[in-house]
């Protein structure tokens, strides 16, 4: 397998060392503060947030990783040998290149076309290069490149000026121009962006796969990045390409892909000039129950992919061929805002197309590729379960749970990035926080876009589309999107609150206590043995039992309930902090298990404060009592039972 270009942008050693120190410092803090019982097998909150959902998500990711390794190390070497052998026998009769540029820096433009023309000369096939440009300066640059190469005889250059309404119309014009030339049988089309540099051997090592496989409709290659920006930006791009490499390789086992990347993809020319193919590129649209019919602004690579998918053509990823993109964030000074804009556009393209692809069913693409599309819709919600549960448990049950979650992040993302590095051939410690950022913030953006995917914006072109022209209708659509999004996440949040025990439905005893203390204001102590024993044994580990204000009676029935083998989960018992206060009337038997503020057993009364708390001692457990007034008095009911005759 060939190596990526040496000039791709990566983080500096100083940055890597700084990240290493920060990760080690965080690891020390997490281990020191980690609650001992958080990994208890009976910790429902932990195993729901980390175990069940995490096992599902990472088992699917592991399947993708194993398929990727199988493709790169077993299947692809055989395919490469077949393609190389086919290249020795024949080449396509002619080649068409569609290169779209929109306000590309002249220096970048020169490097792109210089590499492209050099590749066309080396490949030696009669080629028509359609330069879809936006400025007269582009013509000067291309002319300069052709002069440097002596205007090679096998390369014809045609200029087509864009309308300025997006890439789709520019591509459609070129495709119609190619169709009028009546491409010869076996001719190929390369579609690429104007900021992509072809590395030496790109055409020869990628287009040969069409000669080896007559059922192959399109292919795309590996990517690397030449980034203008800081270290975080450089590694963000390289991490995305590493993740792309893994998923593309995995899908290629099924002879399908999830996108034909617009940076560089190749097609059979006779497919690309089909009228319905061209129409889909130019006028792709969707009918939605809430948004009506609207056209797609960007995402031409999803349209070409869907046409081939629908018509049953094979697609392939070529992992040992790299093309290098000149990447730059829309605003390099604002990493978060710029990456958000890019991800929102990418995810919008994905969501606008995936519904209709899923509707095709598994038949035209196979079960694995079909389920990968379904998983894209599920994962944006399941990814949010872990951080949401961690936040709920940390805020309402046990603050130290956040350290367990941080340890989980470091462990799982560390393993994931190591697997990516194994297949990518390099590693960066910045990948650990960046992959978490991509997953969680990406999931939030996907859910956001899924309720508003008619809203489209292309930052480089400075154009937007999708919303109604009427401001009132557009505002109504936005408000409905906010409402539906809030309702969907509210349902998820409510389910997680109930599942983790943060909010449990009140039982009859709780309602009785609330009624007696809050409504009637009765001073007669209410018996709370059953309620208190249930709460102590059913709370999430480390939770606090919160007693309301009022007077309550506790007798031997509490001790009997807690000695029946139930696991004590509560960490402490708190009374009401204020006026009125919480008072517990203890039977003598219960008082014998209470340590007063002075460490001695309670004989009469005691006041348990945060500074001088008391404790209920049960075998090896000690439950502190805080903000509670205690008094020892005989329970009339228990006395009556004890003195009753046969």
Descriptive labels:
five-stranded mixed beta sheet; 646 residues; eight-stranded mixed beta sheet; 53% helix; 20 helices; alpha/beta; disordered C terminus
List the helices and strands and how they pair.
Blueprint: H1 13-33, H2 44-89, E1 95-100, H3 106-123, E2 127-133, H4 136-148, E3 155-161, H5 167-180, E4 188-193, E5 196-198, H6 202-212, E6 216-228, H7 231-252, E7 264-268, H8 269-272, H9 275-283, E8 285-288, E9 292-295, H10 300-310, E10 314-328, H11 335-359, H12 367-396, H13 401-424, H14 431-450, E11 456-458, E12 463-465, H15 471-500, H16 508-520, E13 526-527, H17 529-538, E14 544-546, E15 550-554, H18 556-562, E16 572-574, E17 582-586, H19 588-591, E18 594-595, E19 605-608, E20 614-618, E21 621-626, E22 628-632, H20 636-643
Parallel strand pairs: 1-2, 1-4, 2-3, 6-10, 13-15, 14-16, 15-17, 16-21, 17-22
Antiparallel strand pairs: 4-7, 5-10, 6-7, 8-9, 11-12, 18-20, 19-22, 20-21
Helix pairs in contact: 1-13, 2-6, 2-7, 2-12, 2-13, 3-4, 5-9, 7-13, 9-10, 10-11, 11-12, 11-14, 12-14, 12-15, 13-14, 17-18
Number of helices: 20
How much of the polypeptide forms β-strand, as a percent range? 15-25%
Major pleated sheet:
8 strands, mixed
3D shape: elongated
Neighbour order of strands in the largest sheet: 3-2-1-4-7-6-10-5
Low-confidence runs: 516-522, 641-646
Gyration radius (Cα, Å) is 33 Å
Mean pLDDT: 86
- SS-derived structural category: alpha/beta
**Residues in helix, %:** 40-55%
Distance between the termini: 92 Å
* Number of separate strands: 22
